[in-house]
Amino acid sequence: MEMKHHNCKYIGIFSVLFLICTSALAKHNSDHPLSPEDWNEVKEKVELLEVAGLMPTLLPVILTNRDALQLTDEQVSAFRAWRKKNYTNMVNIMNEIIEKMVEFRVQSLSPSISADQLLAFQSDIQELQIQLLKIKLSCRELIMTTFTDEQWDNFAFIISDNPKLASLMTQMTVKDSKEMQ
Q1: 126 closest CA partner among 177, 54, 63
Q2: Would residue 175 count as lying in a domain?
């Protein structure tokens, strides 16, 4: 009975995440570009899926702070084009990772699953994480080749005010100062 309740909990969590992503995809796949309000809604849903990847999702932070970063129209267009090209695939992979992680946790409690099967299952999850990382790295590359030095400085300031990313900046600053010693 307890195992059945445990499975229902994971199915419920996955169902909620699936519904969130489905509505985000519907908004993104429309023929017109996302309005700032639509993008804020999509951004919030992508942030819910953030646990599926190792690298933070930076584009929502950049586009939300485009005025403070003084992005040019060309930069905004390039970021929007990247998002239009990659967003659906990224969210699909994130959903698949979450689904497999939930399934892995459930299956790991089953006595009929061998350690080898669980290792293979984990390898599948890691392969999906690599696919997701490659997409995020393409965004990182776009950011790195598009930003000016001043925009990088402003971005560091914006990240330091972002609760989810500020701790990463603190760790990076500590690591950088140790390497300089």
Answers
A1: 54
A2: no
Q: Does residue 42 contact residue 34 with C-beta atoms inside 8 Å?
A: yes
Q: Token digits for 74?
A: 């060309």
- The verdict on pTM exceeding 0.85 is no
Residue 13 placed within a domain: yes
Within a domain: 124: yes
Neighbours of 115 (CB within 10 A): 8
| In-domain check, residue 159 | no
Residue 136: domain span: 2-152
pLDDT 10s digits, 144-153: 999 999 999 8
Give the pLDDT confidence of 86-144 residue by residue, as tens digits.
989 988 998 898 899 899 999 999 999 999 999 999 999 999 999 999 999 999 999 99
Closest by Cα among 86, 128, 85, 93 to 21: 93
